[in-house]
């Protein structure tokens, strides 16, 4: 009695859903949950239901277009790389040379 098991060839590949890869799936999910909560709050606040639907559906369409645009523009890791590049300081300013002396002492040990 031998069993036949299929080997998963998708290990270490990015998660993909409808063309979205990686973190963009999470961005879309968080946006949709936020829109659901927004709809509930507007409805409870007594705003006209058709106005609530118009606002939420319009925001949802904008969310989908934005997330798909970011996904196709930057790819799986491009947006994270762009954000990381923006956080690099333009220059470093040291008031003494002691920092460099300490670094060289650590390298020698």
From TrEMBL:
Pfam families hit by this protein: DUF4133
Organism domain of life: Bacteria
Annotated transmembrane regions: 24-44, 51-70
Entry keyword set: Membrane, Transmembrane, Transmembrane helix
Matching InterPro entries: DUF4133
Protein name stated in the entry: Conjugative transposon protein TraF
């Amino acid at each position: 009695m031998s069993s036949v098991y299929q080997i998963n060839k998708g290990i270490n590949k990015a998660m993909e859903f409808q063309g979205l890869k990686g973190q963009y799936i999470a961005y879309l999910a968080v946006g949709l949950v936020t829109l659901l909560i927004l709809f509930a709050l507007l409805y409870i606040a007594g705003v006209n239901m058709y106005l609530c639907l118009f606002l939420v559906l319009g925001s949802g369409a904008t969310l989908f277009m934005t997330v798909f645009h970011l996904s196709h523009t930057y790819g799986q890791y491009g947006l994270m790389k762009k954000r990381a590049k923006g956080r690099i300081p333009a220059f470093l300013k040291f008031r003494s040379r002691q920092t460099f002396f300490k670094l060289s002492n650590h390298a020698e040990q």
